[in-house]
Amino acid sequence: xxxxxxxxxxxxxxxxxxxxxxxxxxxxxxxxxxxxxxxxxxxxxxxxxxxxxxxxxxxxxxxxxxxxxxxxxxxxxxxxxxxxxxxxxxxxxxxxxxxxxxxxxxxxxxxxxxxxxxxxxxxxxxxxxxxxxxxxxxxxxxxxxxxxxxxxxxxxxxxxxxxxxxxxxxxxxxxxxxxxxxxxxxxxxxxxxxxxxxxxxxxxxxxxxxxxxxxxxxxxxxxxxxxxxxxxxxxxxxxxxxxxxxxxxxxxxxxxxxxxxxxxxxxxxxxxxxxxxxxxxxxxxxxxxxxxxxxxxxxxxxxxxxxxxxxxxxxxxxxxxxxxxxxxxxxxxxxxxxxxxxxxxxxxxxxxxxxxxxxxxxxxxxxxxxxxxxxxxxxxxxxxxxxxxxxxxxxxxxxxxxxxxxxxxxxxxxxxxxxxxxxxxxxxxxxxxxxxxxxxxxxxxxxxxxxxxxxxxxxxxxxxxxxxxxxxxxxxxxxxxxxxxxxxxxxxxxxxxxxxxxxxxxxxxxxxxxxxxxxxxxxxxxxxxxxxxxxxxxxxxxxxxxxxxxxxxxxxxxxxxxxxxxxxxxxxxxxxxxxxxxxxxxxxxxxxxxxxxxxxxxxxxxxxxxxxxxxxxxxxxxxxxxxxxxxxxxxxxxxxxxxxxxxxxxxxxxxxxxxxxxxxxxxxxxxxxxxxxxxxxxxxxxxxxxxxxxxxxxxxxxxxxxxxxxxxxxxxxxxxxxxxxxxxxxxxxxxxxxxxxxxxxxxxxxxxxxxxxxxxxxxxxxxxxxxxxxxxxxxxxxxxxxxxxxxxxxxxxxxxxxxxxxxxxxxxxxxxxxxxxxxxxxxxxxxxxxxxxxxxxxxxxxxxxxxxxxxxxxxxxxxxxxxxxxxxxxxxxxxxxxxxxxxxxxxxxxxxxxxxxxxxxxxxxxxxxxxxxxxxxxxxxxxxxxxxxxxxxxxxxxxxxxxxxxxxxxxxxxxxxxxxxxxxxxxxxxxxxxxxxxxxxxxxxxxxxxxxxxxxxxxxxxxxxxxxxxxxxxxxxxxxxxxxxxxxxxxxxxxxxxxxxxxxxxxxxxxxxxxxxxxxxxxxxxxxxxxxxxxxxxxxxxxxxxxxxxxxxxxxxxxxxxxxxxxxxxxxxxxxxxxxxxxxxxxxxxxxxxxxxxxxxxxxxxxxxxxxxxxxxxxxxxxxxxxxxxxxxxxxxxxxxxxxxxxxxxxxxxxxxxxxxxxxxxxxxxxxxxxxxxxxxxxxxxxxxxxxxxxxxxxxxxxxxxxxxxxxxxxxxxxxxxxxxxxxxx
Length: 1274
What we know:
- β24 and β25 form a beta hairpin.
- The chain has 1274 residues and is α+β, with helices and mostly antiparallel strands.
- Helix content is 43%, strand content 17%.
- The chain is built from 45 helices and 41 strands.
- The radius of gyration is 40 Å and the shape is flat.
């Protein structure tokens, strides 16, 4: 009897086909053949062989863990074979396993993860053999079988992506859960459907669910990859691919088909092959031969064929401090963006383990990521345009990337330069590898390209030449002679043809044809003579200034910078709208200059600059005279620009001056005037008093200082006297100006820039604010005024007194560059952007990492992008090092105390004091006595459960109440003098202490001293005493108040003084930061509280009283500031208005007030109550919820100390508010602030407890004493 074949579902067959085709596109043809012929037994044998191999390597792995998975696949194959009849589909569910276990054998961590993953898949596979006989003909069941097939192949496809990248196998597999959890979830879901009732499977629902999960995974994966890519590019200091713009600009000079010959050249074709031979090509030729254009055409051609080609074009106008590192960074960025799957590897292996992309890290990174491609080609052009001292190092670094190892990867390199010695010597040493391609030997190809180029350019000039040459005779002569004399120089041809644009008569055209220059130098000489025509001295002077600026400026200038620059000279220091040159002025210097797409004006070729700098034609282009004139122009610009910060100038006047364009050079002048001054001095420039530059420097300095005094900037920022850098740290050339009055101003500028470079600002806005707060000159203020004016004008439709056409022209000029990078000394050229979003993206590349202070922690080396990241790390990092016992656990232990003890009215008292209330002896303390005199109880009178005794400390818990606390010492820090103050950081991981001369910061977890902060500008004999310390909420700043009346704000990560706050005439008794770190309050013995803004660095307000101030505190919400006074009172003011809100105590007739000076104040976390500690031995709690302006009401008095209460603070035990006080009686009291109950008395010092502080987050508190010790308690 013939067996009936079960009908198959078309939908199921379609699902199988789609999954198979998707996976098969990911593998090589050889692997497709292998997969189709691999049996399940082959996979088992491969597992056994791999196990034996690992055993021989002493890395035994149990491959039998694969057995359940292979068994499950075997059962599944029997169920699905009906759908696979006549197809190669079936072996593909197990064949990739063989390849994966063989590849992962070299990477044990990945191998274990892979086997674990296979096991998890096995757990999701149902018992198909129990259902297939009954349901194999059911189309719903077949659809689910097909879903399983698709999920298994999708798993194989994603894991297979790592096979070609063996170097990255471990790193790539590290994200297993995020990459494959969606597949495992789908398999589990389909398994549940089968197990419930396969016949009733809702296939439509399952299909839709599968589609949604696939789309969600792809979306999540793309978002994760995009976020990591941003971080990687930020680490590399790049945004996108700047080289793409450069290659587009260069390739525009290539006429159609004029460069096609290079891709057909035999040597280039050999180089383009994927074989390991012919790996290095040196393309060289004379200046202007079109090397860059040929290279750009070659790159574009290879890109069109989807080859792995990466490139870098050096540009003489872009000054990069480390050209070699920039080359490697740019190549790395291109490779990563070409292969997005590399992002995870680079992020995990390099970004997280290297603070910056150092040259060493880049040299390690590039070969690794190049290995991700079996074949790569690098094109590097223009090394000869770099500084001659750098050329050898750049070439060496580039050649290190060369690889002909077929077992790893092949990387071929093409280097294009002039035949310069530094490069030629290195390349010629590699004669076995280098193929030399000299453009001087390619006459035929070059001439054909030049003919094509000439025809195209002449056709563009046809309308003009038809009038001058109607018979075309001259044009034919031009074409013939240009080809004959070009000698392979496209630039020469281009410049000659450009000169035809300024021909206005047949005679001039005939002269050009008959007398063509022989080479570039002669051509440049002729063009220069025409530009600097002696018959037109006005144009000569203007053109010379333009060429001088382009030649010697420190970065490319834009048109709106170059025009005012060219109008300033020693005889014309005042520039107004009427004397500002028109843009047509730049036409004089053509064809030597061009305006690029980014708005910058540059020479058409770097050989122009070389010619001008080496030519003896005119003194105009000598370095000495050039830097003198540029310095003069910068001084004139800045002198007139100071009007923008003149308080007597109106906003409308400032805007009118900016829109006129006369201040266009201000950004460049602020950035570079000191550099040009140094260059002038270092090239032998003299500053005699009769020299115009000297006189103008003196005039500028006088105007600056007068305006500085008028605006009082120096007074506002006199408190920000940071530690000074040395001459070497600033600039050794500063000594060249030591005899000039301008020296101090230059030093101030260099010092501010040096400080800004040390500062780890988290944003461009923060960098700008920092510069503004620390610049004791007017230059930062001037830059901000100019930038704000530009942005204001772009947003206005009309400006009074300004013509609409003028405003529109201004907007057109600045529309693409209005947002300047706010980080000082930004190396990007240009460093201006069309929108705030683009600027912010760029500024992210300046972010510097913040490091964990635990020396043994790996993040001490890696660091974090922000302080928030550091705080998050610190909260989780040291929970492993110190795990405090939860309060709930302690209470459970306490409840095990004998019940009879707990029932006694005085449960903790022993002997005759532990009886019932009816039998208490006359000498026994009453309950209220126990509360008020907890510190006087004798240890022998307290039961063991209600006391803890250490070597040099003891703690008594109130025997009237159930014990809920357990105090123990964690660390003891010994000092060399009395410790007057102590404060925890807001994250609770650090504690700062103040003593004689120094402030010390300790790690609370390890107990190690992190740093000791000493003001090195103090004389050694100075006995300065630190009276108060306080961390800012972000942990980056620490304020220290001292008895010299100065508050020093320290930059904690680097241990330097950020600024000094001065103005108090007596000692600083207390400092406190607002929780949002926006203000800091200072309290002094001169009877004044001062509030300073930490964002602007300015004094916000001064609050005066008639008594000495001992303590200040700011509420957590920042609304109130309180002060404790020696006149027995406390005051509370509104921080926004300075209005006195509450006057607490201090009157003779107030029975609830203190009867001694208030030594310490603190708010409760909600800002509803104020606690005051006094010399009257009490702590009082004041209600701040009453109506404003009231005298304030004391709602509770805490008694127990027997001497002055010197310090008070609050903390929480879960939701329970606690009050802690330290006293001259050497003890510390704990109270429940809600009920007023005293909870414990701690004796841990031999001297007065001068300060107490509670950790905001870790359940710790600290005490400081005049016994020269600090103790941390849990």
